[in-house]
Amino acid sequence: MDLILWGVLPYVSITLLVAGTVWRARYDAFGWTTRSSQLYESRLLRIGSPLFHFGMLFVVLGHVVGLLVPMRWTDALGLSDHAYHLLAVSTGAVAGVAAAAGIGILVYRRLRVPAVRRATLRSDHLMYAVLLGAMLLGLTATVLNSTGHTGDYNYREGVSVWFRSLFTLSPDHHLMAGAPLAFKLHVLFGFALFALIPYSRLVHMFSAPLKYLFRPFVVYRRRDPRLTSNRPDRRGWERVS
User: Fold this and answer.
1) Fewer CB atoms inside 10 A, N or C side of the chain?
2) DSSP letters for the chain
């Protein structure tokens, strides 16, 4: 079972992520959308959406550092293990609480606003459940680990090493077998979320409008009143003689 969960399932999840994203891009380009419901309700959306998106941005960055940066690198920089965990827990807790509060507001909005509820798909219910579960389990694992309820377990020597071993196609599933239950459930929900991304509205994360930042300026010119004073008013689509 450990081999299936920690040696096979991650690759199944990534395969579903990549294959599903390619399929959506090729055969469902017009369905590649956030399915925005801002027209139905905007007050709660203005609060919940920034909290969730900015909170998740820092949560993802924290996971990238925690999982991909080996301990020897931070030790070489002179950052002690205690200082690292203090920094990770303080910043991660703030980002996690912000993201959880944001998704909580968005879920409440989905359930309580009739127009938004009618525009909610079945895939949205599954996506919200998996996403909220992954976030709450991550916060739970952080609290339990920082308060000593997981013993002397160090995820940087267990979960992180196992995660990096996935990239070498030789997953050390024994490392995950000894991880606390909260970490195991968090990882399982995380990979379930990866597999769900292409088949839900979360696919819009791969279509950030980066080109908009580098587009040329739109130049507006004011008409010279001296040239148009004797010209009759015309509608924009009429031919100017």
Assistant:
1) C
2) -HHIIIIIHHHHHHHHHHHHHHHHHHH-GGG-S----TTT--HHHHHHHHHHHHHHHHHHHHHHHHHHS-HHHHHHTT--HHHHHHHHHHHHHHHHHHHHHHHHHHHHHHHH-HHHHHT--HHHHHHHHHHHHHHHHHHHHHHHHHTTTTTT--TTTTHHHHHHHHHTT---HHHHHTS-HHHHHHHHHHHHHHHHGGGSGGGGGG---GGGGGSPPPP-----HHHHTTSPP--TTSPP-
Q: Which of 192, 235, 152 is nearest to 14 (CA)?
A: 192
Which tokens hold the place of 97?
Answer: 């609480």
**88-97, 120-129, 232-241: least confidently modelled range:** 232-241
Question: Regarding predicted confidence, which is higher, 32 or 184?
Answer: 184
Q: What is the pLDDT of residues 159-212, one digit of tens each?
A: 999 999 999 999 999 999 889 999 999 999 999 999 999 998 888 888 866 676
What whole-number distance in Å separates Cα of residue 204 and Cα of residue 226?
49
Distance separating alpha carbons of residues 22 and 3, to the nearest angstrom: 28
CB 177 within 8 Å of CB 121: no
Task: Evaluate if pTM is beyond 0.85.
Answer: no
Alpha-carbon distances, residue 2 vs 41, 103, 190, 199 (angstroms):
45, 32, 17, 27
Q: How many residues does the chain have?
A: 241
